C-alpha cells in the first residue's frame, strides 16, 4: 500500500486555473476520502499514522489548497471560496462522489462543500471545528453564549516562523499541557519527520504569517464569526448525508462545545469526544480515530437502523 511517508506528489490543473498538488494514499478502489487540513498547514503536516490508518480500507487524497504548499494560485478570503476551491480540485480529478474530512479551519471549508455540492459528498467528517456564527441573537439547544477560545493559543499558532517555533506551537496549541500531551506531541512530530521521498524535500514551513496566514485568519474572523445566513450555521439543517463530528474533550483552539452544536443541529450526525485530548486529538489517538472514521464510512446510516435499536 502506498503510504503517507512514500506517496509521491502529483499535480492536476483545475478549471479555476490552480495547479493543485496532491497525494493519493492506499490501494483500495472504494470511494475516495478527501481531507482538508488546518490553518497555516500544507499536506506535509498530516500525521502519517493518522493518514495511513484512514487509508487501510480506502484511497485517501490529501492536497494543498490554492496558494498553500506546492499548489499555485491565491488563498480565497471566504470559506465559500475554500469550498469552491476544493470542489474544483475534486472535479479536476474526475471524481463523481467522495467522502470528505475537514480538520479545524478545514472543517469550516468542508461544511460549505457539503452545502454547495451535496450530491458530491456521500459522508462528511468534521474534526475539531465549528459552524459559523448564528445570525440569531440567542439560540436554543446549544451552549449560548458560545464558549470562546483563549486568544493566547491563537496568537501562538499565528506567530510561529522558525522550525523550533513551528514544532512548539503545534505541541502547545494541539496537545494537553502535561506529560501525556508532551509525549503524544513528540511522537506525532517524529512521525511527520518520517516522510522521505527522493526529490521532494519536506515542507514544514507554515504559511507565511504576513501574507497567506493573514488571509486565512481574516477569513475566520471576518467571514466565519460574523453572522452571515449564507454560511453554515443557519443552513446545517440542509445537510442530509451522514455526518461524524469529532473533537478532544478540552480543545483550546475550537471549544469542544461547538462540536456539540454541530451534533445537535445536523439531523443525521454522530459525535465522538476523545478523553484527555485537545485540538490535536486526531494525532494523539491517530489509530483509534482512523478506525472510528473507517467504521463510520463503512457502516450503515444510524437513522436507517434506528427502528431496530
TrEMBL record:
Q: Which GO molecular-function terms appear in the entry?
A: monoacylglycerol lipase activity
Q: Supply the Pfam families for this chain.
A: Abhydrolase_1 (PF00561)
Query: The AB hydrolase-1 domain covers which part of the protein?
Result: 42-281
- Cite a single GO BP annotation: acylglycerol catabolic process
- Asked whether the keyword Hydrolase is assigned, the reply is yes
Upper classification of the source organism reads:
Eukaryota, Fungi, Dikarya, Ascomycota, Pezizomycotina
> What's the protein name?
Alpha/beta-hydrolase
**Origin, by domain of life?**
Eukaryota
Whose protein is this, by species?
A: Lophium mytilinum
Amino acid at each position: 500500500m502506498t503510504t503517507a511517508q512514500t506517496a509521491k506528489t502529483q499535480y492536476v490543473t483545475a478549471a479555476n486555473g490552480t495547479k493543485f498538488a496532491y497525494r493519493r494514499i492506499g490501494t483500495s478502489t472504494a470511494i475516495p476520502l478527501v481531507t482538508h487540513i488546518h490553518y497555516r498547514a500544507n499536506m506535509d503536516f498530516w500525521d502519517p499514522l493518522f493518514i495511513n490508518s484512514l487509508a487501510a480500507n480506502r484511497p485517501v487524497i490529501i492536497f494543498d489548497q490554492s496558494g498553500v504548499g506546492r499548489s499555485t494560485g491565491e488563498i480565497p478570503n471566504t470559506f465559500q471560496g475554500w469550498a469552491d476551491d476544493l470542489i474544483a480540485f475534486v472535479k479536476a480529478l474526475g471524481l463523481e462522489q467522495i467522502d470528505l474530512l475537514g480538520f479545524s479551519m478545514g472543517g469550516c471549508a468542508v461544511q460549505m462543500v457539503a452545502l454547495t455540492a451535496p450530491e458530491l459528498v456521500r459522508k462528511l467528517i468534521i474534526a475539531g471545528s465549528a459552524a459559523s456564527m448564528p445570525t440569531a441573537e440567542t439560540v436554543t439547544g446549544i451552549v449560548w453564549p458560545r464558549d470562546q477560545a483563549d486568544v493566547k493559543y491563537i496568537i501562538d499558532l499565528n506567530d510561529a516562523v522558525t522550525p523550533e517555533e513551528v514544532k512548539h506551537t503545534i505541541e502547545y496549541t494541539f496537545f494537553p499541557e502535561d506529560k501525556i500531551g508532551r509525549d503524544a506531541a513528540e511522537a506525532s512530530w517524529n512521525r511527520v519527520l518520517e516522510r522521505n521521498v527522493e526529490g521532494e524535500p519536506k515542507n514544514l514551513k507554515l504559511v507565511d504569517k504576513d501574507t497567506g496566514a493573514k488571509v486565512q485568519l481574516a477569513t475566520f474572523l471576518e467571514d466565519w464569526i460574523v453572522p452571515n445566513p449564507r454560511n453554515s450555521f443557519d443552513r446545517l439543517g440542509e445537510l442530509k448525508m451522514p455526518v461524524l463530528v469529532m473533537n478532544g474533550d478540552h480543545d483550546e483552539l475550537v471549544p469542544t462545545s461547538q462540536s456539540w452544536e454541530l451534533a445537535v443541529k445536523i439531523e443525521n450526525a454522530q459525535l465522538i469526544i476523545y478523553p484527555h485530548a485537545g485540538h490535536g486529538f486526531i494525532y494523539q489517538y491517530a489509530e483509534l480515530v482512523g478506525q472510528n472514521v473507517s467504521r463510520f464510512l463503512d457502516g450503515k446510516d444510524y437513522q436507517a437502523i434506528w427502528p431496530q435499536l
